[in-house]
Amino acid sequence: MRRALLTILGIFLLSCLIVGQPLAADVNTGKKIRVTKYPGMKLGYLSAIFLTAGMGPTLENELALIDLASEQGFAWMEIRDPNAALTVAECRAINAYGILKHIELSYAINKGPLDSDYPQVIEKALKNAAEFTKGPRTIRVPESNMEFMNDPKKMAWTEEEFKKALQIQYDVAKKAKTVGLQFVNENANLPVSGPYGFEAYMDAADKIIGWQLDTANMFCISKMHTDPKESDRVIRKFASRIFYTHLKSSVNGVCQPVLGDNELDNAIILSILAQNKKNYVAIEVAQVKSVDEQKANLIKSLEYLKSKGIITIK
To answer: How many structural domains comprise the chain?
Structure first.
């Protein structure tokens, strides 16, 4: 099915280009989200929010999610392919469809540097990510993963893990540069403070390693809850190394299913991003099991931003 769809899409695109005909997919709905409070900022969303609802990384699903982005007026979307299951040809087709729908795209996986299969997955992911030609031009991974998932009591890296992760990510970041990509780490499980926490990691990491900021993870994912004032300080400290942002909400240490108030006001974070011209921002909400429910949550999140005077939708 995937191969057949890929072939049909490729023939369709090629035939339209040859005869010079406009593409049906290239028709704008007219709806467009504008971040009026911060001109130049581009609002998108994550395909990852639909994973639990059954929309895993397939060609068919990613095209449908691009359609959703276009229908709602988003500017871009993060393609989440946790294990780099998509093929290069599929990524090329997804990129072409995104261009036709005027949706910029980025590529992300869910493997951390200390995962046993990280070398194989990241090698494939780099090839996939290089196919996305309009957007942040990044390859995103979490700063850590299974070492925390497999040990609920684990609160931080050891010195050995810290040094090993730094070297692995530096090597990957260099490879990313050779194919025109910026390598970025998302703040996830690591505590923000401490000798082997996220701040220490960013201090020690070569500047070739960028940051994909998540506005809620310091409160609802990190193994140690972060004081909002400390979060504010760290975001300002490393703002120049942010390449894009997941806009998410946490209340009392719980990630929220709809964007709303955050333990560090998202308006403050957006202001910092705007001051530093960090313009790619994507909505992330907690995952649910229903596609329709998640679509509704995404629309509710837009209504929240609209109510705060951050965006307009026309």
So the answer is: 1
Segments forming the whole domain that contains residue 242: 29-313
Residue 8 lies in a domain: no
- Residue 175 CA to residue 52 CA, distance in Å, equals 31
Q: Give dist(CA 194, CA 301) in Å, integer.
A: 34
Q: Within a domain: residue 243?
A: yes
Contact 130, 165 (CB under 8 A): no
Distance in angstroms (rounded) separating the CA atoms of residues 31 and 71: 7
Q: What is the pTM of this model?
A: 0.92
State the Cα–Cα distance between residues 244 and 308, nearest whole angstrom: 21
Containing 210, the helix (H) or strand (E) segment is strand 210-214
Q: Give per-residue pLDDT as tens, 16-73.
A: 443 344 444 444 557 999 999 999 999 999 999 999 999 999 999 999 999 999 999 9
DSSP, res 76: E
- Give the bridge partners for 45, in sequence order: 77, 283
